[in-house]
Amino acid sequence: MPNTPRPKVIVTRRLPQAVETRMAELFDVELNLTDTPFSQEQLADAARRCDVLVPTVTDHVDAAVFAAAAEAGRLKLCANFGVGVDHIDLHAARVAKVTVTNTPGVLTDDTADMVMALILSVPRRLGEGEKLVRQGNWAGWSPTGMLGHRITGKRLGIIGMGRIGSAVARRARAFGLTVHYHNRTRLPPSIEAEMEATWWADLDAMLARVDIISINCPHTPDTHHLIDARRFALMQKSAYIINAARGEIVDENALCEALAKGQIAGAGLDVFEHEPAVDPRLLDLPGVVLLPHMGSATFEGRQAMGEKVIANIRVWVDGHRPPDIVLE
Ligand code: DGY
């Protein structure tokens, strides 16, 4: 509903205070003060009552939600707080004639930093070392204590060389890793040369060759369970897998089995297949570092994501094409 002076905006979770304040100045905003994720009924109710819905990754904005919106005929923009949109049924959004936007770019560095932190943590056993000290079990330095594996000189295989994958590659180069990548489209030669990156058209061949695998692609029907039991079997026994993208890209059951069988050496996970549930088998495995989906969790990043949401809504209210269109 462009040119509406104060559109009704419903935000499903608490956002940074400054973002909420600015939204209240600009829009007729309804906040979820409890910060508890909406049920499907609450989401459908919100979709009936607003012009703009601001969901997050914890919402399942499914076909029923868009059907409710279409029936009421009010919702026109779904301005996601986050870059990944796999929790939004884009086909149903198109049918309901709802535009979808996201927040790309502003969380690239933070997420790449988190990937790098996991790349450093898993082979060097930071999780185990930290636990040892905290639990009072550290008996002091020893020549053979807490040995891990050197990062320098290892081969990193990046799946998905978009914004975040490229930012990971640049960081990895500084740590002496060699960069390999699998992407549908090959990078321009000048960028490949800058990163000294090797492109693998064949994902299976890359997986068999690299020491550390970093998943940085979006979750789509094509990438669902991209890493499954067959692909774990291709990896080296000394390989580590890092996932700060989406849990559903990895078959978590196959991952647990691969770790338990020693098919791979370890995993660094910031995301899980059934968040916030974590497969209990992962909790007891030593070569695993687990984080609670915090790749973009910086004050600066979340503020910038909120500003992007606001910018997308404002441009749309003014009757123009929002800058971060996913679907229109
Ligand atoms: C993102 O932006 O996709 C983060 O994972 C949070 O949703």
UniProtKB/TrEMBL annotation:
Organism: Sandarakinorhabdus cyanobacteriorum
Name the UniProt record assigns to this protein: D-glycerate dehydrogenase
Domain D-isomer specific 2-hydroxyacid dehydrogenase NAD-binding, first and last residues per copy: 116-295
InterPro entries in UniProt: D-isomer_2-hydroxyacid_DH (IPR050223), D-isomer_2_OHA_DH_cat_dom (IPR006139), D-isomer_DH_CS (IPR029753), D-isomer_DH_CS1 (IPR029752), D-isomer_DH_NAD-bd (IPR006140), NAD(P)-bd_dom_sf (IPR036291)
Keywords: NAD, Oxidoreductase
Transmembrane annotation, as ranges: none
Coiled coil: none
Entry GO terms, CC: cytosol
Residue ranges constituting the D-isomer specific 2-hydroxyacid dehydrogenase catalytic domain according to the UniProt record: 10-326
The family this protein is said to belong to: Belongs to the D-isomer specific 2-hydroxyacid dehydrogenase family.
Keyword NAD in record: yes
GO molecular function, one term: glyoxylate reductase (NADPH) activity
Record keyword S-adenosyl-L-methionine present: no
